[in-house]
Amino acid sequence: MPSAVVVDHCDTNRPTGPDLVDDICLGMELKFLLLGLPRSEMAGMSYEQFADDTPTGGCDIYQKQAYTSMARVIQTVSSAEKLAGVGASSIQPRAVSRSDIADAGLKERDYWPSHWIVKKANSVEHTKDDPRPDLRRTNGIAIPVEVNSPKLAWRDLYAPILVSKVLSRVRTMPTYVNHTCDVHVHVGRCDGVAFTLTTLKKLATIFWLAEPILRSVRNPHSPNFNNDYTWGFDQRRYSRLALAMENRSPPTDNVLIGEEILMRVRSSPGVHREECEDWHKYMDGTGDAAFRNEALRAIWQTASARELGLLLSGSQREHRRLGFNFSAFGGEDERARTNPRTVEFRILEGTLQEDLIQGWLKICGKLVELGMKGQQAKFCDVVRYLVARQPAYDELRKGAEAATFRMPERQARSKWPTRDALFAEFMGTIDVDPTSYKPFQEKIRREYSSA
Which residues are registered as beta bridge partners of 147? Predict the structure, then answer.
């Protein structure tokens, strides 16, 4: 298969060298609804057998068939593709359902290097306002679906082609996306080894500073704008670092890493400058800048990936995995301890629109590039840019809060560029090509300008 094949499983105890751009590997989760199965997929089975009041056993059988069918569709070349000459290409996705993996006595991780895995999306719900399955075309009920990509090397030229083929084949089925759906992107190393602590600190610095502008990609009028359904809340509001800085840490949290790290910061007369260069001067200052930059100093005071993971995760279960998710390094629950050691982007709302998905993969990869060895000058430039833009981003946050109450942003009164212009400006700063970011710029302009 042309896409990246990762042989080794994640092992944080293995020695490793510095992280390079060539090491970057991405994985994607697509979550959506399947509005019944086409009749050809469920021959001989009537809708009544799988109505909403069907016993659990019947629904389980139907779901298993649905996921197996979706996997088959993903890896089957359509007639239209064959006519276009696609069938002769070796660049074809392979797919398998989670139930078929279990039936074979294997685990999902056995298929991470090579297959798209189809399974149940636990957070996705079919609401009363959503379309019903079309009984003229399909049998059965709406099914929540999650499709996980194999590990895709960042520099693999075939990866976007595979993503495109999967999306086009998924859309041949009766699919629908509502506010309970999300697109998640995991980024790690192709060899499965965790990023170094220095890399993680750099990424945490960029993410903290850029969070307000990056969260602009979410529709402010969506019931899930704040990730209440899919749990990808703001790091600046719900992380232990944010809570400790604002004295909001709940007494029920037994992890006091936020307070401990801030004590280190406040007892230290300056910052450690041996790992980075002149951008550190932006972590001092007075007044509002000093308070804001204290968060950056706290990030760089962490002594291990575990400390950083705990600091940048929330204190409550629903806040454990924030929009920039470092929980895999904190290891607070079984899921974090057994999952790959990746940084996860949980910001983008659900979509099957190809330009948004391909563009988001490009944006996530470009953000992670900034933490790699050999990118120090670029990293410093981006940090300086982001620090200079913090006053504008503070205004964006206020505008986003107003938008959740259906109030249009009053950009005309602002001394700063509009939100979509600031987004495009940042994308240019991190070298994202216009083809990748313009669909988001248009999305932001459209959604934030509507009352």
Answer: 30, 118
Give the pLDDT confidence of 33-87 residue by residue, as tens digits.
Answer: 999 999 887 655 554 555 544 545 578 889 999 999 999 999 998 777 777 776 5
Per-residue pLDDT tens digits for 179-203: 999 999 999 999 999 999 999 999 9
Token representation of residue 363: 């944006």
Report the b/e string of 390-413 with b at 16+ CB within 10 A: bebbebbbebbeebeeeeebebee
User: Could you state, in order of their start, the residue ranges of all structural domains in the chain?
Assistant: 21-189, 197-449
